[in-house]
Amino acid sequence: MKISIHLFLGIILSILLPILSFAQSRNPAVDSMGANMGRQNWGAAIQWALKAAEAEPADKYWRYLNAADFASRDHNADLAIKYATLVLESDIATKVFGNKSFDWLRQDVRWIQIMDRVEQLKEKQRQQRIQASLVFREDQRQLLRQNSEHLDSLTKILPVDMLYKRMREARSAHTYSHPGRYKSHWLEMSDSLEFPYLVQLPLGFDPNRHYPAIVVLHGAINRQTQFPNMVDSTLTGFFGEPFVEQAYQSGLIAIFPYGTNRYNWMMPDDGFGLVPELVKQVKKMYSIDDRRVYVAGHSNGATGAFSYLMKQPSLFAGFAGVNNRPQVRTGGTFIKNGINRSFYNVATDFDYYYPLEAHRAVANLASQLKVNWENQELLGHRKHSYLISSKDSVTKEVYQKLFANLVVKQRDPFQQNLYWECDDVKHGRVDWLELNQLDTMAQKMPWQINQNLSVAGWRHVVNPEVVLDSTSQAFVYPRRSGAVNASYSNNRFEIETSRVKLLTIYLSPEMVDFSRPVQVVINGTLVFNSATTADRNFMLGTYMRDTDHQAIWTNRLQLTVP
To answer: Model pTM?
Structure first.
């Protein structure tokens, strides 16, 4: 049967080429180019879909959907209803039928009956998911209770040195009443907002081990309008099976948050803090190696991973993006901020989301700024969705290399040299340094430079073989920013600022000797020269908030820039 389909495809390829890329994908939407091909081609397209359904039974309902869509575009209501009805027998029925090509059928009694059935199936699934969530909710409550008991035990330790040692070495004792590879969890951000996410435990999970962890961010942010009742294993394909499987095989605890067009990791900024907060919550329930937490993603998820490198990197040891567009969408892209960590970038040559030439230019700029940026290219007319949907050996090798790059990275929150720039102090912190107030009316220092480059080679969204005649700037700088160069050695901090009015230095025994005075020099002026001690209440507060066994901050100095 597959041979006959290939022969059939060879005959009609010349007239169906613009829509075959859609029909052979699992995308339920037919592109506008296909719609413009002309009435005479839809009959052949329907036949292709039916032949493909016979050849690949696993994909047959997607092909029936293709056939229904093609028939609807041909204004053949009977066939459109016929094939749409077949789709109702599948688990994709509740996820499709949003195409505008079906709009003309909305008043047809038969179509109304199909939509009524879809709504019934959606409600049935919703109720099933609510019931399935109950056991996970109780499991989460139990794990968080066990962590609270651990935190309560810390409050009874009075000597600061003993408390510090206990924070670094001790973990919550957890019992996991619900077995299995996947765990559904929720982060409550307010009385009306629950942020669902999925945790995947690694192969051979041992509760007594400390595991590295990776947060995987999904793409297609604008298409997500609401949170599901729970994120379960049926949605792993949405995050990309290569990410799921490689994390499982590589021995990482994997975290898969679900975002919407309002609350996400790219834009607007409303939900940007959700990912760091869920990482902190996961640390309360599972034994995570604080030195080895990573964030990665595909498409909008890759842009999200890049954005955490630029805006809020402190929790993470390394960052990676597949089919990335490296641009902060809510402010300036201060690419030199990447000097504090690293980024592993995977680009394909036929990606409409960001041109291959631009990836090379960004990698070159990062190298000039001494940012640890590794750029991997995949050639061969590989489109935007290839590395998230394909299961071939090429894709597996790409993800093996990506994970191999990440897992050797270890966070050093006490590194002696930091650079940080921001245009919003909500994202003013990196490790032990925080910008609390900017002075954007002040003169900018010569070393604070808004880097940029021109991006050409953009490809057509629908037909990426077509290169567009357009050029744009890689980064946008909508607001003035402030920046800091900072270092420390031998109990002395040297800080150089540009457009900064107020900053904070966080202290740790890993950085300074509290038995000696601490000195802080800002722009050549000695602004602090005094002994300081560990603050027990400050230690407890930050530890209870962050559950970080490595970056334990024992005091802080808030200083006005002279």
So the answer is: 0.83
